[in-house]
Fold this sequence. Notes:
6 helices
Amino acid sequence: PDGNPRLRTAILAAKAVSMPADNIKKAIMRGTGELEGGQIDEVMFEGYGPGGAAVLVNVATDNRNRTVSEIRHMFTKNGGNLGESGCVRFMFDKKGYIAVERDKISEDKLMEIALEAGADDLVTEDPEYFEIYTAPEALQDVKSALEAKGVPIAASETSMIPQTPVTLDEGKSAQLMKLMEAIEEHDDVQNVWTAAELPESA
Length: 202
């Protein structure tokens, strides 16, 4: 973990949801091929949801053929289609993301700590959370700086942020939500992102 920021982030995320240390160790050993169960590959699937909205699906799988078949079926069943590698990824920027509840700290103080630690931006549009965006490699530094100042973090992850969010009508939004929920329930899926801005009524 000391020399691998992605592994360190994954371990911290697992600990944040109280995953037992033994399970974390076994997952690492499986991923490096030290344990039976096959090597784990991280794969990004790309496709289009209802209304043509770009969708990215990040998976960790020990059987790529099985997983791609199952993900393709979910897209098809829910009005979308799985595309070729590279078909939509260019529409997203990879960013570090941290959410902090608004009532935990003032905007000015949070901005001062975050920017000094290397954050790119602080967004204040959400009524409940301040949202901090960083370069992926700066995420851990900014998170550590906030924790050192006693700022409670509601969420932190590496995320794919759409460059130009698109708006769908209510029917297509509901279909897209159904597709994303189905994908999120798959055991191999780590994250799902879309370029669509989903209305509250969806």
